[in-house]
Specification:
The protein has 267 residues and is of the alpha+beta class. The protein folds into two domains: 87 residues, Winged helix-like DNA-binding domain superfamily/Winged helix DNA-binding domain (Arc Repressor Mutant, subunit A), CATH 1.10.10; 166 residues, GAF domain (Beta-Lactamase, 2-Layer Sandwich), CATH 3.30.450. The strands form three sheets. The protein has a six-stranded antiparallel β-sheet with strand order 8-6-5-11-10-9. Strands 2-4-3 form a three-stranded antiparallel β-sheet. It has a two-stranded parallel sheet with strand order 1-7. Strand 10 and strand 11 form a beta hairpin. Helix 1 runs antiparallel to helix 2 and helix 2 crosses helix 4.
Length: 267
């Protein structure tokens, strides 16, 4: 079974609207939109999706084409990511200790339990970004390195809330904007956050994606809040039949090992 992660064009548009550096935010939003699109896009669809005036959007696109980050097909009048983005990504990957350390762990757990495994980086209460991915044989989630998700969504969000020392008012404000297939109440979610703090990992049983269980274990790169998390995603009924408790233990053990390797301290 394959599941495609929800799109977030409206979130990109909101970032552009609220930004204090609109030129940079517009360019970043265009790159993210093209990056998640399965096909090249024309000027009007890009401008409409991001809530931009077409003339402004065209100015941004031309600048990105000049920098070789975006390509333009004069025949179809459509834009797509250009190879120049690989140069930026390559430099980041060379310096990313977590991705290098996490990838073999993700591959092992994905094959052992037949789940999709993600290594995600946490950016406070703003969002999380997938920086490493491994697909299991039983369940595959259509997500790539670079995919972004709201910070407090699903099991990872419970970890961020549990170990991040954020004020309840800040959490509730962000929580109310989340999109779930089976949304929990804020009170139930807070109880699950407390359970996450007690057991050391978060679990989402069908709230984010109906019928799908998501597990997340936090990783610390240094003192303070978690910097990353390991995430396991699978069909809930299959995981219960085939060893959910074993997956929970393996995920938590792997996260603790990676925290140690990165010089962090969960305490």
């Amino acid at each position: 079974m394959e599941y495609t992660a929800p799109a977030s064009g409206d979130q990109l548009a909101k970032v552009v609207k609220d930004s204090k550096a609109p030129a940079i935010s517009r360019a970043a939003a265009v790159l993210r939109l093209l990056g998640k699109s399965d096909q090249p896009l024309g000027l009007q669809p890009i401008a409409r999706e991001l809530g931009l005036v077409p003339s402004t959007c065209l100015y941004v696109l031309r600048a990105l084409v000049a920098e070789e980050l975006v390509s333009f097909d004069p025949d179809t009048k459509r834009y797509a990511l250009e190879a120049g983005v690989l140069t930026l990504a390559r430099q980041w990957l060379r310096r990313n200790q977590f991705a290098d350390l996490a990838q073999p762990v993700l591959d092992r757990l994905a094959q052992q339990f037949g789940v999709t495994m993600l290594g995600v980086q946490i950016f406070g209460l703003d969002h999380i970004v997938a920086v490493a991915v491994s697909q299991g044989s039983s369940f595959q989630l259509s997500v790539q390195v670079g995919s972004r998700f709201p910070a407090l969504i699903s099991a990872t969000g419970r970890c961020i809330a549990a170990f991040g020392t954020y004020a309840p008012a800040d959490l509730e404000q962000r929580f109310q904007k989340l999109r779930w297939e089976e949304p929990p109440s804020f009170e139930d979610w807070l109880a699950q956050v407390e359970e996450t703090r007690r057991q050391g990992f978060g679990i989402d049983e069908g709230n984010y994606i109906a019928g799908v269980t998501v597990l997340a274990a936090p990783i610390w790169k240094g003192p303070g809040r978690p910097s990353h998390a390991l995430v396991a995603i699978g069909i809930g009924s299959a995981l219960k039949r085939n060893g959910l408790e074993e997956l929970e233990a393996a995920l938590l053990s792997a996260a603790r090992a990676l925290t140690h390797q990165m010089g962090g301290d969960a305490a």
